[in-house]
Amino acid sequence: SRAGGHAGVATNQSGLGRGLFDMAALNAMHVKMNKQLAHLGGRIDAVFFCPHAPADGCDCRKPAPGLIDLIGERYGVHLENVPVVGDSLRDLQAGQAAGCPLHLVRTGKSESMDALQIAQMREFVPDMEVHADLAAFAEALVRGERLQHGANDQNDTLYGQTQYGRQP
Questions:
Q1: Taking the CB of residue 65, how many other CB atoms lie within 10 A of it?
Q2: Of 60, 44, 83, whose CA–CA distance to 12 is shortest?
Q3: Residue 30: exposed, middle, or buried by beta-carbon count in 10 A (0-12, 13-18, 19+)?
Q4: Helix axes 66-75, 89-98, angle to 10 degrees
Q5: Helices 89-98 and 115-124 sit at what angle, rounded to 10 degrees?
Q6: One pLDDT digit (tens) per residue for the chain, 168 residues
Q7: What is the DSSP letter of 162?
């Protein structure tokens, strides 16, 4: 966020469709998430959610690409340049179907995966990059952007710096 990027969340929330919680509860979850991110200097620009149960057969429930397509439409961006970061095969398959670069973070659902399980996941999404966590992904993304804009160890273009100082 501090380097000028935007973040959107695409999330399956079948609990809505199944009556396990209501919109007020979902909104409260999003408020809590945003408060925790703000404490770290981050923000979520928009949350896109699928309220349908798995049996509904919608096109917005991941692994379908509908939510990611909506993000691309909302922001007017070509998805081949929009990284999808997730902790599950379903997340990455949605990004793959939308034509996005794929990044697995080893937290949440993937935290306990071993090397064999990661290799098996690569059979379905061979082009994914793997990161220890969301911070490691963000660092790699900003570093890549800095290099694209001409930064190196001897020549720093200051890309990705803000009033808060140097970003990873």
A1: 23
A2: 60
A3: middle
A4: 50
A5: 30
A6: 777 888 999 999 999 999 999 999 999 999 999 999 899 888 999 999 999 998 999 999 999 999 999 999 999 999 998 999 999 999 999 999 999 999 999 999 999 999 999 999 999 999 999 999 998 999 899 888 878 777 665 555 454 444 333 343
A7: B
